[in-house]
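Notebook entry, cofactor series.
This is the third protein in the set we're modelling with a bound small molecule. For this one the ligand is S-adenosylmethionine. I'm keeping the input format identical across the series so the outputs can be compared line by line later. Sequence and SMILES below, as received.
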Amino acid sequence: MVDYEKLKRDIHKTLGIDLTAYKDQQMRRRINQWIERHQLKTYNQLVATLETDIDHREKFREYLTINTSNFFRDTKVFDVIRDKVLPEISRSARPRIWSAGASIGAEIYSIAILMNEAKFTPGLLLATDLDESVLEKARAGVYLPNQIAGTNQEYLDKYFTKKPNGHWVIDEKIKKQVVFKTHDLLRSTYERDFDLILCRNVFIYFTSETQQRLITNFVQSLKPSGYFIVGSAEQIMDPVSYGLQRVSYCVYRKTL
Ligand SMILES: C[S@@+](CC[C@H](N)C(=O)[O-])C[C@H]1O[C@@H](n2cnc3c(N)ncnc32)[C@H](O)[C@@H]1O
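Returned structure with ligand:
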């Protein structure tokens, strides 16, 4: 078996994903599971398959980037967003909000629903991801029952249509409010002047050096007093060193 370092270089070349920024142990385990599942014997065989089989390559990309998401994921955080963050940032005319590592769009659409409920008008609802195939799903706005399971009945009735095949389609009015774009957190430039940035359940896969670099970038992209929200397993150890103050569960605020 060729070594993991070479595999990382090959994956970078073939898929454009830089695995040196991700935690080795976790990624290795996932890649080994994939190899086993597809009855490939070596890293070399995996690379050869990725180079020749487009379908395999795209499925592997999806698998590596781990796209799991759902509406109102971690309801406690959405309670804070509804009761504290949105009323606060909506004092500024037309707040700008960015969901980074947005996956299928469930997170940004959940925010759009809350804004709509409170009759706040967003200036920008931006959702970005490295993986174009999940962004296509996000733009389509069609969801499986498990992906909308955290949504209360009132919002389901108001903002979704249930199709005969059991899929749930997000309301056109909500969909139109969101801009979806491809963006690699490791390589692309970061837009500025956001009132709120959410980057949840993305950091956990990165090394701590990469996490530090990304947090610094996010803080630069926030307006003064802007909010930054991470996933429940991604608490920031020393928020003050980044110019952040912990406000609540998973929620930070820029102090400058
Ligand atoms: C587990 S999902 C999180 C989705 C959503 N934020 C949530 O919490 O429900 C992680 C997402 O991060 C994206 N991702 C991974 N590496 C990335 C990178 N370097 N740049 C941008 N997005 C990335 C993946 O494609 C995936 O859609």
